[in-house]
Write a structure and sequence with these properties.
Elements: E1 12-15, H1 19-27, E2 33-37, E3 54-55, H2 64-74, H3 81-100, E4 115-116, E5 126-127, H4 134-147, E6 152-156, E7 158-164, E8 170-177, E9 180-185, E10 188-191, H5 212-219, E11 224-225, E12 230-237, H6 250-253, E13 257-260, H7 278-290, E14 295-298, H8 302-310, H9 312-320, E15 330-339, E16 342-344, E17 356-358, E18 363-364, H10 377-391, H11 413-423, H12 430-440, H13 448-462, E19 485-486, H14 488-505
Parallel strand pairs: 1-2, 1-10, 2-6, 10-17, 16-18
Antiparallel strand pairs: 3-5, 4-5, 7-8, 8-9, 11-16, 11-19, 12-15, 13-14, 14-15
């Protein structure tokens, strides 16, 4: 690792060590980059856990327009068509780029890319590496490339605030390591900090996925969009682990079926059946569980017997839980998995705050809409890394403003996680959401996790319809297809209004 350099004339700080952050750092070369990661490079990121693959239109029967259409259909009216087409067009070139940096993809006997099928895709277009180890293989390749890049220096620390210059632009970060705070000034900051799944008691995300980048952006005044849309992976393995291991959706693409304890199909009578979009499958399983049923993913027989070679990650997870998928079904339940909402960005990843960019799950690009299409997440992070590198045009920072620096309280995360699971989960209603907002608001000023949870709950309370991953039992029908946008100032104003209304009703 290179020593930290104070020269900020062209330096960009990238916060996050997953696919988005690593790709941005590489794409910005030869411009100098300081990559800030909260854990050792290659660990603590959701990228390494991604089992599905990368959606890319490399098949002879496929086209970017078809991929974009599937993305729009899954997005339930909120996917932006131009964004969906632009990202889909990037797919084949991104696979080629990953091959050039040494990522090995699965091949057929004639050396063509082996393509898988996942729910809501109309074609086989899922490019995989190591069967169900795509995320880990991609992460390994990107880490090797970053470590070899002379333009990238790595700082292991936690970003806890953003620096501002006298023009109001973001001019670096405040970082914390071993209790010590220090500044890293920069020309621009790219947030690539991942998602929010660890705000829920049942999640497939690593423990650090509590929306820290969202909190940084919100406190800087950035516009946030569609915060209420949290995707729940339908088939997390229900074996008592935290985080929960997941059984990739690709298993259902290869013939696995969802059944209850009697063997009856859980998705019978529902359009799309076992291969319906994720939100539909998650609700189907959730409702079966609410009725007292137990739900299983049934891969018994040929698929289960072949799992150690075709899906080695899932096979290993099952073995660790004492499950043999060849002879017994896998117990599953929905778990918080991916956040479609995030910091609103333009086509070059720029936020509403000068000098601040966002890439990957922390960003709201317009691709995912109300429900992410399977295997579009790695694709989006890779695509927008290139868009950011091509479009980043932040001027050199002016003098950095003096500001008080402090580390915000960690908060009572177990309490927040249980609250979000109970009241802001797969199925929501006004009473539960209002209770969550009231419970989270007092801690939001000093606790980043509470702030992000409050933004999600507040957005869910305000969206009085059911769309994609957001399902209101008291508003089960579609309304107008509109995005929700908010800032921290908007949230504070809404909370003042709510408190005043409650006070007026108090005798």
């Amino acid at each position: 690792m290179n020593a930290f350099s104070p020269n900020t004339a062209d330096r960009v700080v990238v916060v996050g060590g997953g696919v988005a952050g690593l790709s941005v750092a590489l794409r910005l070369a030869p411009r100098p980059v300081t990559l800030v990661t909260a854990s050792l490079l290659g660990s603590g990121t959701a990228t390494g856990w991604a089992q599905g693959g990368i959606a890319a239109t490399v098949g002879a029967d496929d086209a970017a327009a078809l991929h974009a259409a599937d993305t729009e259909a899954a997005g339930a009216g909120l996917t932006e068509p131009d964004v969906a087409l632009r990202v889909a067009q990037e797919g084949p070139g991104l696979i080629d780029w990953l091959v050039r940096i040494g990522v090995p993809f699965d091949r057929t006997g004639d050396a063509a890319l082996a393509l898988g099928l996942e729910a809501a895709h109309g074609r086989r277009r899922i490019v995989r590496s190591g069967g169900d180890a795509t995320g880990a293989r991609v992460l390994e390749g990107l880490v090797r490339a970053v470590l070899a890049a002379p333009s990238v220096e790595i700082v292991t620390a936690r970003a806890c605030d953003l620096l501002r210059d006298t023009n109001g632009a973001v001019a670096g970060i405040v970082a914390e390591r071993d209790g010590a705070l220090f500044r890293i000034p920069a020309r621009a900051v790219v947030l690539a900090t991942g998602g929010v799944g660890a705000l829920y008691a049942a999640t497939t995300n690593p423990p650090g996925a509590v929306g820290r980048g969202l909190a940084l952006a919100a406190r800087a005044g950035a516009v946030l969009r569609d915060m209420e849309f949290v995707q729940f992976h339908p088939t997390a393995i229900a074996a008592g682990a935290d985080p929960m291991p997941l059984a990739t959706e690709a298993l259902r693409g290869e013939g696995a079926r969802l059944i209850d304890e009697t063997g009856a199909p859980v998705m019978a009578g529902i359009a799309g059946g076992d291969l319906a979009p994720r939100d539909v499958v998650a609700r189907g399983i959730f409702q079966a569980l609410q009725r007292g049923r137990r739900v299983y993913l049934d891969a018994r027989g040929t698929l289960g017997a072949a799992m150690p070679t075709r899906f080695p990650t899932v096979a290993g997870l099952c073995a660790a839980a004492g499950i043999d998928p060849a002879v017994e079904p896998i117990p599953v339940r929905p778990a918080a998995h991916y956040h479609m909402g995030g910091v609103k960005v333009d086509g070059h990843g720029a936020t509403s705050v000068p000098g601040l960019y966002a890439c990957g799950e922390v960003a709201s690009t317009g691709l995912h809409g109300a429900n992410r299409l399977a295997s579009n997440s790695l694709l989006e992070g890779l695509a927008y890394a290139r868009f950011i590198a091509e479009g980043l045009d932040a001027p050199p920072p002016a003098a950095i403003m003096p500001q008080a620096i402090s580390v915000r309280a960690a908060g009572d995360l177990p309490v927040i996680r249980n609250l979000m699971e109970r009241q802001v989960g797969v199925v929501r209603d006004a009473a539960g959401l209002a209770g969550a907002v009231g419970a989270l608001a007092p801690a939001a000023e000093t606790c980043d996790a509470a702030l992000v949870a409050l933004l999600i709950a507040h957005g869910a309370l305000e969206r009085r319809e059911s769309r994609g991953a957001h399902w209101r039992s008291d508003h089960p029908h579609l309304g107008a297809a509109t995005h929700t946008e908010t800032t921290l100032a908007d949230l504070r104003a809404a909370e003042r209004g709510r408190a005043a209304a409650e006070e007026a009703l108090t005798p």
